[in-house]
Amino acid sequence: MNHDFEKILQAAPSSFVLLDKDLRVVWANNAYLAVTDRQADKLFGKILTEEFPSDPDSESGRMLRGSFERVFRDGIADHLPVIPYPISGADGESEDRYWSATHTPILDADGEVEFILQHTQDITEIYAAEAHADGNASIAQADVLRRAHQVAQQNLELDSSINFFKMIFEQAPNFMVTLMGPNHVFRTANAAYMQLVGQRDLIGRPLCDAVPEVAGQGFIEMLDEVYRSGKAVTQLGAEAWLQRSPDGPQERVFVDFVFQPLDNMHGDTIGIMVQGHDVTAQKMAEIHLREAEERFRTMAHTMPVHAWTATADGNLDWISEQLYAYSGVEKGSLLENAWPDVVHPDDRAVSMATWANAIKTETVYETEFRLRREDGSYRWHLVRAAPIKDDQGNLLRWVGTNSDIHEQKELARQLAELNSTLEERVEKRNRELEELHDRLAQSQRVEAVGNLAGGIAHDFNNLLQVMTGSLTMAAREIPKDAPVNRRIDAAMRAVERGASLSSQLLAFSRRQPLQPRSIDLCDLLTDIDDIIRSALGEGMEVELDAVEALWPAYVDAASTQNAVLNLLINARDAMEGRGKLKIAIANRHFGPEDLLGEPDMVTGDYVEVKVIDHGPGIPAETLPKVFDPFFTTKPVGKGTGLGLSTVYGFARQSGGRVTINSRPGVGTSVVLLLPRAQSAAEPVRWHDPSDIAGGTETVLLVEDDAEVRDATAALLSDLGYQVRTAEDPTAALKTARQDPDFDLLVSDVVMPGELSSRDMAETLQAERPDLPILFISGYSRDSIVRDGKVDAGVQFLAKPFTKDALAIKVRDALSSVQATAPEQAKDISDRPCHVLLCEDDALIRLDLADILDGLGTEVTETASGQETLDKLQTGHYDALLIDVGLPDMSGEEVATRVRQQHPDMPIIFATGQANVPAAETLGHCAVVQKPFGDRDLARALARLGILSHADAASGF
Predict the structure, then answer these.
(1) In b/e form, how buried is each residue of 901-912, taking b as 16+ CB within 10 angstroms?
(2) Helix or strand or coil: residue 499?
(3) Residue 703 is part of a domain; what is its CATH number?
(4) What total number of domains does the chain contain?
């Protein structure tokens, strides 16, 4: 059944008015219009408190507004038994009247208060009658009005208290929230909380729905536990992440808070009061302060100087770890006034007086004194401290440093001493210049003979090679018992003597092609013990004395044996074939002071071979000439004068030296110094004559000398090989391309024409990376020999050579390529190499990058060990070139960590030191000693397989 409620309300004798959320009049019945003396068209749409104004602070204003607020807040009807409220009539005259009102909420579909229906009763006459009651008035009615007025007053007072506490709640600087029920539904939240979480709709919504980002941060679980247990929880500096705006990022905040359970009259928890403070600014300031302090401590503890601080009155309150580590004293033992304990006794008085004066005058403290080191020695330091003052100029503290200036002081002392001995130093320098002039003269003589030797060696050795080949082939065609064989043997011995003489000429002039490798000299000499004893004869006794843990030497094996044999034979001749010789082998380290006057040598580690005899000794006037070429004290026909000069040239060419000490009547000792190898010693390998064999492969022989070409081809054919020949590199390329079916290229080095033998070889290897190449030459200073050493990886055979020597070298060349996977060779030649370069010195790093770029590699540069490790985490590199001395950690430590993550990465150490232990322990490493050039670096890259030998040579 439908009813017209508006019609019903219009017929009611009581006053009704309908108000919206803004207290705007939406509708009123006729009784309301009559009692208020208003017309509907003028009243509707007006705000009730503006149409019927009253002072908000008056009793009536506060009572009416308080009732409306309770309805909107609680959603239930509110009663005002008695409320005084003035009403102005149509004539504008205001009249004080008394009302009884009921405010009933009208809810919308969501349960929210949409309207308020006010039902009012004008009780002015009843209230006035009660005020003037006489004996005939109703006592009961008067009591009702009195109680109603009391209730109204109490409600008004209660509203005032509620509003007071609401004001406190809203304006409180700390955040406050009430959460009701087990789902933690927001009942109230003050402005501080809204500022913390951002302006959002909270009231009436569960915490997990209203502030969803707190899920997983532990707060909801903590609230659940407080609601369950009824026990409060307090936390200080709790971290939370809040999204303060819908599209903004989550922000980090820190809060102090308490979760206080709210209990009903039965003691049951019905909600939780959350109260706390936003301490984000304080926490962030503390974090930044800690970070700043940590940065200061890190900087102070890593600076190369000692750092310290003191209070305004001069008492030290903090000292960096460097000073404790330097002095070796217990941490904390130098604080306050104990610091003079580590100052040199002679310097204490002055340093303390200077410090006291600086404190008194509040000026910079600066002095010099000696500090005791952990080992008990003293070193000079420059000590400075600056006063730190506030904005008002008040002294707060001191910050000081100690800088080691011992070297500068020592240099100043040495300079003073040098100035005082100037005359003596000039004389000494003159002597050194004279010695240097003598060495220069000797070097020029050697150079002159070397140029002569080099000029004739090629043609001379070619002639000897023709003779060797012809005699070898002739001997095959003659019966073994034929008398002519004696003549052939004699001719072959003459050829060998000629080859030996040519080799000696090249040796002392430092032009012989050496092929150095890592060798144990003790094993090398033990291996030729039979040859040594045969050469010395039965009258000589030889003692070999080598230290334990002998370093390997980086030398050419055959030349080393020849040099030692030369020294032993000279000693035998001096002792006339009778007596005892001693060979002593030891490790030696040489610093700059040990190599004064030796500009061709670098500081570092060497292996020393000393040959000691007890012969008559060498006269003082003869001793300076013993290394001169062609100088000999032996009778004519007994010596060439090339023995010691050959040893001298070999030692210098190998990067070492030879010296001689002799005392007449006592004996002579010759010291051969050879560079230490950076890799483990390789086994001494000599071919057994029974292993010498030929083969059936096809060989392309390139030789411009027709007779040498024919003789060499005959030897190869006699060994079973198929031989094709070419007279020069251009013809060889043409032949190789027309018929590429051959297995080995054998080429002379020095040939006429625009195309060099090296260019031809590189062209063929670019087309056929697996092609083995054997170079033969009588003299090849600038083609495949660099600084007196055959390029790494190059197969080389010196002219003149025998059939057996040729057979061995050909098989070695063929075998070396067969042992290398073609895929690997192609990878090396085709793929660009990416080198990670670590060098802290910017100028050196720039030079090395240019060298590597010139070798055709890609380069990535770093300046520290940590930067290098970071690069290897994100990029791919084929090799690491690293300096040993870096600012943050040693290059050896970096290499060890790199090898753990990249087991196969080749590593090259650049150093000024004599040896790098990590290079031996890690394996697959090379060492280049500073100062080095592009050739040294290229050879190191080639030895490790980072570049092909052709690519490495192209950068020379």
Answers:
(1) eeeebbbbbbbe
(2) helix
(3) 3.40.50.2300
(4) 6
Task: Answer whether residue 204 shows pLDDT above 70.
Answer: yes
Within 13 Å of residue 606, how many CA atoms lie on the same side as its CB? 24
- How many whole angstroms separate alpha carbon 98 and alpha carbon 78? 17
Reported as a single tens digit per residue, the pLDDT across 366-378 is 999 998 888 888 9
Q: Please count the residues of the chain.
A: 956
pLDDT-derived band of residue 610, with 50, 70 and 90 as boundaries?
very high
Report the distance separating Cα 652 and Cα 659, nearest Å.
11
Q: Give the CATH number, domain containing residue 177.
A: 3.30.450.20
Q: Give the ranges where 537-612 is alpha helix by DSSP (H).
A: 557-574
Instruction: Determine contact, residues 754/707, Cβ cutoff 8 Å.
Output: no
- Domain boundary among the residues 389, 413, 437 is at 413
In a domain, 257, yes or no: yes
SS3 797: strand
- 310 and 273, same domain (yes or no): no
Same domain, 771 and 722: yes
Angle, vertex CA 443, rays to CA 442 and CA 444, nearest 5: 90
Whole-angstrom CA distances from 181 to 215, 227, 270, 779 are 18, 8, 5, 102
Please state the φ and ψ torsions of residue 720, each to the nearest 5 degrees.
100, 0
**SS3 at position 351:** helix
Question: Does residue 590 sit in the same domain as residue 646?
Answer: yes
Rounded CA-CA distance 617/813 in Å is 47
Residue 491 in any domain: the answer is: no
Count other C-beta atoms under 10 Å from residue 676's C-beta.
21
Indicate whether 657 belongs to any domain. Answer: yes
Q: What is the DSSP string of 225-270?
A: HHHHH---EEEEEEEEEE--STTSPPEEEEEEEEEEEEE-TTS-EE
Please check whether residue 877 is in contact with residue 836, taking contact to mean a CB–CB distance below 8 angstroms: yes
Cβ-Cβ contacts under 8 Å for 637 (sequence gap 6 or more): none
- Helices in 367-483 by DSSP H: which ranges? 406-420, 422-477
| Amino acid present at 305 | V
Is 906 in a helix, a strand, or coil? coil
> Between vectors from CA 631 to CA 629 and to CA 634, what angle results, nearest 5°?
140
Check: CB of residue 586 under 8 Å from CB of residue 605.
no
Same domain, 589 and 521: yes
Q: What is the pLDDT of residues 132-170, one digit of tens each?
A: 555 444 555 555 555 555 555 555 555 555 555 556 556
Based on the domain organization, do 71 and 94 belong to the same domain? yes
Let me know if residue 499 belongs to a domain. no
pTM greater than 0.85: no
pLDDT tens digits, 516-563: 889 898 888 887 777 788 778 888 888 888 898 899 999 888 788 888
What single-letter amino acid sits at 341?
Answer: D
509 near 453, Cβ under 8 Å?
yes
Measured CA to CA, the distance from residue 923 to residue 478 in angstroms comes to: 54
Is residue 100 within 8 A of residue 148, CB to CB? The reply is yes
**What DSSP character marks residue 926?**
E
Give the DSSP H or E segment for 837.
strand 834-838
Specify the CATH number for the domain of residue 668: 3.30.565.10
Distances (CA, A) of 932 to 886, 928, 935: 18, 7, 8
Coil, helix or strand at residue 880: strand
User: What range defines the domain where residue 279 resides?
Assistant: 172-284
Task: Name the pairing type of β-strands 306-311 and 316-319.
Answer: antiparallel
Does one domain contain both 163 and 179? no
Q: Residues 855, 941: one domain?
A: yes
904 and 935 co-located in one domain: yes
Chosen domain end from 362, 397, 413 = 413
pLDDT, tens only, 210-239: 899 889 898 999 999 999 999 999 999 888
d(CA 659, CA 672): 7
**Residue 148, φ and ψ in degrees, nearest 5:** -65, -40
Q: Would you say 113 and 43 are in contact if contact means Cβ atoms under 8 Å apart?
A: no
Which 8-state DSSP code applies to residue 277? E
